[in-house]
Design goal:
The complex is a heterodimer of chains A (296) and B (483). With 296 residues, chain A is of the alpha/beta class. Chain A has two domains: 17-118 and 231-278, 3-Layer(aba) Sandwich (D-Maltodextrin-Binding Protein, domain 2), CATH 3.40.190; 125-226, Periplasmic binding protein-like II (D-Maltodextrin-Binding Protein, domain 2, 3-Layer(aba) Sandwich), CATH 3.40.190.10. Chain A contains twelve helices and 13 strands. Chain A has helices at 17-27, 54-68, 80-88, 99-104, 154-166, 171-174, 184-193, 203-212, 214-217, 244-255, 260-269, 283-295, and strands at 41-45, 72-76, 94-96, 109-116, 122-123, 125-130, 145-148, 177-180, 198-202, 220-225, 229-230, 234-237, 273-275. Chain A has a six-stranded mixed sheet, with helices on both faces. In chain A, strand 1, helix 2 and strand 2 (72-76) form a beta-alpha-beta unit. Among the domains of chain B are: 2-185, PAS domain (Beta-Lactamase, 2-Layer Sandwich), CATH 3.30.450.20; 330-483, Heat Shock Protein 90. In chain B, the strands form three sheets. A five-stranded antiparallel sheet of chain B has the order 2-1-5-4-3. In chain B, a hairpin with a 2-residue loop joins strand 9 (393-401) and strand 10. Helix content of chain B is 59%, strand content 16%. Chain B is α+β, with helices and mostly antiparallel strands and 483 residues long. The chains are: A alpha/beta (296), B alpha+beta (483). Chains A and B meet through strand 8 and helix 7 of A and helix 3 of B.
C-alpha cells in the first residue's frame, strides 16, 4: 500500500544525491535559465502531505524523467515561502504550490495544470479540534492553542486568518497560543496529540489521511468546512513558461491519468488526474487574501 | 524433654546438616547482598549513562527550537525521541521555559502549551540537574538545563520508567534465593546422609557395648572394620582389645576360683584325715575289745555302737568332701547341702576349740547355684575360723527372705583389715597374687558377683560380720528344678 503520510523530518529534504547537488546549486542562486535538453529539470514541491514519501518521489522522478527525456530534480523546502522564492527567481522550472502563493504572485506565474480531486479541481479547508474538545463551531475555539500549517498556506492559515479578519481579530488575540507546523500532517499530529487544541488543515489531506492513517485522524474532529476553493496548482515562472521542457512537463501531467506510471502516482496522491486551470478558479482565494491583507 | 531442647544433646546427623545449612544461608545472604548492591550500582551507573545520552541527544535536537520558542519543533523533537533511546523508557518529557511555563511536552494533554508546570511535580525533579531515582514508585526524573552562549533558555524535564531495572533486580533476587535455597537444602541432605553414613560404625560399637552389658563379651567382627574411617578402626581395635582382656580376666577368675576350690580341698583333706583318723584309733580299740570280750554281749553291743558312731562320723566327713569336690546339683541348693559344711570345718573348730553356732533356716530347696553357694559359705567359714581367737564363737546364719538368700558369717577376731574388706566389697578389683592372703576373699567376692549378689562387711562390737545377699529364682521353678 502506498504510504503517503509516512512520518519523517518535516524539512526540505532532497531525496537523491543528484538532488542534493542540485539543491546546493539552487541555493547558490546562480542557475541560468533552462535551455539545453541535457540539463536537469527542477520541479519544486511544497510540503503538502507528501512530506517524504520516497516511493512517490521516486516514481514521480522516473515518470517525469521519461516524459521529459532529461533528468528531473525534485526540490523540497521546509516552507512554502522558500519554494515561492526559488520559483520567482527562476531557480525552479516548475513547482506545485499552494493557491495562496499563486494568487499572491499570479502576475509572475503561469498555470500549467490543476489536480482533479474527486474529478474536480477543488478542495476545502477544515478547522479541526482534538476529539476530546467540546468545540462545535469555529467560535468555540477561541482561547485555544491553535496549530497552523504554513503562513503561505490557504487551508493551513489564510482561511482561518480570513475568518478572524471577518471577526476583526487576529490569531494573537483570538487564540491563547498559536504556532506553525510547516506541514498538514504535522497539524494532524499536533491536534491529535493535544499539543494544539485546534488546527487549520487542508481538507483533501484530512480526507485522504483518514483512510490511510485512521488512528491519527481519528483523534481529530472537523468543526468548520470552508467553501470549495481552487486546488493547489502546478505553475512555472512566466519567463520559463514557453520553454519546451516546461511544456513537456505540463503535457506529462495532463497525460498522467492515461499512463500506467502516471496512474500509479495519481493513486498514491488519491487524485484522478490533471486539468488545465484558469486564474478565475482562484478568485475566491484571492478575495480572501485581499481581505486579510487589508487588515494587516 | 528439656534435654531434647538443648542443642548440645542433638544428634550429629542433625547438627552437622544444620551447621552446613546455616553456613550456606550466611554465605548466600552475604553473596546476595554483594550481588544485589553491585547490580544496583551498575544499573544506576548504566541509567546515568543512558539518560545522559538521551538528554544529550534531546538537548541538541530541541535547543534551536527552544531558542525560537518554537512549540511545534520542540514537540516534534520530544515526540520523535520517544522510544528511540533503547534502555531509557521515557514516560514523558517536556521543555520548560525560564518563565516556568511549558513550551511543549511529549504528553501535551498533561502539560498544556504555555501553562505552568504543576508544583507537585516540580519538586520531583533534581534542582541541580542530573538524575533522581525513586525505587518505591519505579521512576526516575531527569533534568537538563539548555544553555546557549552561557544563558539558560529552558530546561528539559523527563520522567523515566525504571520498573524494568527493578524487575531485573527482583528476578536476580529470586534467582539467588531459589538457587541458594536449593543448594542449602541439597547440602543439608548430603550432610545428613554423609554424617549418618560416617557415624554408622558408632552404632555397631554401641550394639557390641550393649552386648557387654548383657554379659556377652564378643569382639567386633573384622568385616565391620574394613570400610570405616581410621578413627573408628582404632576404636574398634581398642574395643576388641578390651573385650579380649575382659574375657581373659573372666577366664582367669574362673580358673582361680577352681584352683582355690582345690586348694581349699587340699587344706580340708589334712583336717579330714585327722577327723577320719581320730575315730579310727577308737574303732580299732573297739574291734580289739570285741576280739577280747566277744562273749560279753553288752561289751559287743557297746563296741558296735561305738564303731557305728565312728563310721557315721567318717561317712559324714567323706560325703561332705565328695559333694564339695564333685559338685552337687547346679540349679538347686538343698538345706542338707548347707548342713554338710560344719563337718568340713570340724578339724578347724576342734583344734581351736571354737564354738560353731550353725543356724540354717533354709527349709526347702532354693533355685540357686548350690555348689557355688557352698563354696562361698565354706570360704567365709574357714576365714572366720582362722580369724577367731582360741575358744571363740563363730556364727553362721543362712535365711531366705524376699526372694533372696542372706548368709551372715560372724567371728570374734581382731577385725578384717580394710584392704581385705575392699577385696570383698569391690569384686572388680584386680585379682591379688596367688600367694597373697586375699585370694580366698577375692574368689568369694567374684563368686558372689557371678551369682548377681553383693557382700557387705560389718564391724560389730567385736570381730567381723560378713553378710552375703544372693538373689533366688522363684520357688516354683526351684521346686520343679529340684524335682
Amino acid at each position: 500500500m502506498p504510504a503517503i503520510g509516512r512520518s519523517g523530518p518535516a524539512r526540505g529534504d532532497v531525496i537523491t544525491r543528484r538532488n542534493v547537488l542540485l539543491g546546493l546549486g539552487a541555493a547558490a542562486a546562480v542557475r541560468p535559465t533552462s535551455a539545453s535538453a541535457a540539463e536537469t529539470f527542477s520541479f519544486g514541491l511544497t510540503p503538502l502531505f507528501l512530506d517524504n514519501d520516497i516511493e512517490l518521489l521516486t516514481l514521480l522522478e522516473r515518470y517525469l524523467g521519461q516524459r521529459l527525456g532529461r533528468p528531473v530534480a525534485l526540490v523540497k523546502r521546509r516552507t512554502y515561502h522558500e519554494i515561492s522564492a526559488m520559483l520567482l527567481s527562476n531557480q525552479l522550472d516548475a513547482a506545485w504550490i499552494c493557491d495562496d502563493p499563486y494568487v499572491q504572485y499570479r502576475n509572475q506565474l503561469t498555470l500549467l495544470a490543476v489536480p482533479l480531486y474527486h474529478h474536480r479541481p477543488l478542495y476545502q479547508t477544515y478547522v479541526i479540534v482534538n476529539e476530546a474538545s467540546r468545540a462545535q463551531v469555529f467560535d468555540d475555539i477561541r482561547g485555544t492553542v491553535h496549530a497552523f500549517s504554513d503562513p503561505d498556506s490557504t487551508s493551513g492559515y489564510l482561511i482561518t486568518r480570513w475568518l478572524l479578519a471577518l471577526r476583526h481579530t487576529t490569531p494573537a488575540q483570538f487564540f491563547r497560543e498559536f504556532f506553525f507546523t510547516y506541514g498538514h500532517r504535522n497539524v494532524l499530529r499536533a491536534v491529535g496529540s493535544g499539543l494544539a487544541e485546534s488546527g487549520s488543515i487542508d481538507g483533501y489531506v484530512w480526507d485522504v489521511m483518514r483512510e490511510r492513517e485512521p488512528d491519527l485522524v481519528g483523534k481529530t474532529r472537523i468543526i468548520y468546512r470552508s467553501e470549495w476553493l481552487g486546488f493547489p496548482p502546478m505553475v512555472a515562472p512566466n519567463a520559463l513558461a514557453n520553454e519546451p521542457a516546461v511544456k513537456a512537463f505540463a503535457a506529462a501531467l495532463l497525460d498522467a491519468a492515461s499512463d500506467p506510471l502516471g496512474r500509479q502516482i495519481l493513486d498514491i496522491l488519491a487524485l484522478d488526474g490533471f486539468t488545465t486551470g484558469t486564474p478565475e478558479m482562484y478568485q475566491s482565494t484571492l478575495d480572501k487574501w485581499l481581505v486579510v491583507k487589508a487588515q494587516v | 524433654m528439656l534435654r531434647a531442647l538443648r542443642i548440645t544433646s542433638w544428634p550429629l546427623t542433625v547438627k552437622v546438616p544444620l551447621l552446613v545449612a546455616g553456613l550456606m544461608v550466611a554465605i548466600a545472604v552475604a553473596i546476595s547482598q554483594i550481588v544485589l548492591s553491585r547490580l544496583a550500582r551498575d544499573q544506576e551507573a548504566n541509567l546515568r549513562l543512558l539518560s545522559n545520552a538521551y538528554l544529550d541527544g534531546l538537548s541538541a535536537a530541541v535547543l534551536p527550537a527552544v531558542i525560537r520558542s518554537d512549540v511545534w519543533e520542540t514537540f516534534d523533537a520530544l515526540d520523535r525521541a520517544r522510544g528511540r533511546y533503547s534502555g531509557v523508557k521515557v514516560r514523558y518529557a517536556f521543555v520548560e521555559l525560564p518563565d516556568e511555563t511549558v513550551l511543549a511536552a511529549s504528553d501535551p494533554l498533561r502539560f498544556p502549551v504555555m501553562k505552568p508546570v504543576p508544583a507537585t511535580l516540580r519538586q520531583e525533579f533534581p534542582k541541580d540537574g542530573g538524575l533522581a531515582i525513586d525505587e518505591a514508585s519505579g521512576r526516575a526524573w531527569l533534568t537538563r538545563t539548555l544553555r546557549t552562549e552561557g544563558f539558560s533558555v529552558g530546561r528539559i524535564h523527563a520522567e523515566i520508567d525504571i520498573a524494568d531495572l527493578l524487575r531485573v533486580r527482583h528476578q536476580v533476587l529470586w534467582t539467588l534465593l531459589l538457587a541458594n535455597g536449593g543448594l542449602t537444602l541439597a547440602f543439608a541432605l548430603i550432610g545428613y546422609f554423609a554424617v549418618k553414613h560416617m557415624l554408622q560404625p558408632l552404632s555397631v560399637l554401641t550394639r557390641y557395648v550393649e552386648r557387654v552389658r548383657d554379659g556377652r563379651l564378643e569382639p567386633i567382627p573384622q568385616r565391620y572394620s574394613r570400610n570405616v574411617a581410621s578413627e573408628f578402626g582404632q576404636l574398634f581395635e581398642r574395643f576388641n582389645a578390651m573385650a579380649r582382656t575382659l574375657s581373659e580376666r573372666e577366664t582367669l577368675a574362673t580358673r582361680l576360683a577352681e584352683q582355690e576350690k582345690y586348694a581349699m580341698l587340699g587344706r580340708l583333706a589334712s583336717g579330714m584325715a585327722h577327723e577320719v583318723n581320730n575315730p579310727l584309733g577308737g574303732m580299732l580299740n573297739a574291734i580289739d575289745t570285741i576280739h577280747a570280750h566277744g562273749n560279753d554281749p553288752a561289751v559287743v553291743q557297746t563296741s558296735l555302737e561305738f564303731l557305728k558312731r565312728g563310721l557315721a562320723g567318717i561317712r559324714n566327713v567323706v560325703r561332705a568332701a565328695l559333694v564339695t569336690y564333685k559338685g552337687g546339683s547346679d540349679a538347686v541348693l538343698t538345706p542338707a547341702e548347707l548342713d554338710d559344711l560344719p563337718f568340713l570345718v570340724q578339724h578347724e573348730t576342734g583344734v581351736r576349740r571354737l564354738q560353731l553356732e550353725w543356724r540354717n533356716r533354709v527349709e526347702e530347696p532354693l533355685a540357686i547355684d548350690g555348689p557355688t553357694v557352698r563354696q562361698i559359705v565354706l570360704n567365709l567359714l574357714l576365714n572366720a575360723c582362722a580369724a577367731s581367737p582360741v575358744a571363740g564363737t563363730v556364727e553362721v546364719e543362712a535365711a531366705p527372705a524376699d526372694g533372696r538368700l542372706r548368709i551372715a558369717v560372724s567371728d570374734e577376731g581382731a577385725g578384717l583389715p580394710a584392704e581385705l574388706a575392699a577385696l570383698l566389697e569391690q569384686p572388680d578389683a584386680p585379682a591379688p597374687s596367688r600367694d597373697s592372703k586375699g585370694l580366698g576373699l577375692w574368689t568369694t567376692a567374684h563368686l558372689v558377683q557371678r551369682l548377681g549378689g553383693c557382700v557387705a562387711v560389718e564391724r560389730p562390737m567385736t570381730g567381723t560380720r560378713i553378710v552375703v545377699t544372693l538373689p533366688v529364682a522363684r520357688a516354683k521353678e526351684a521346686t520343679r528344678d529340684a524335682a
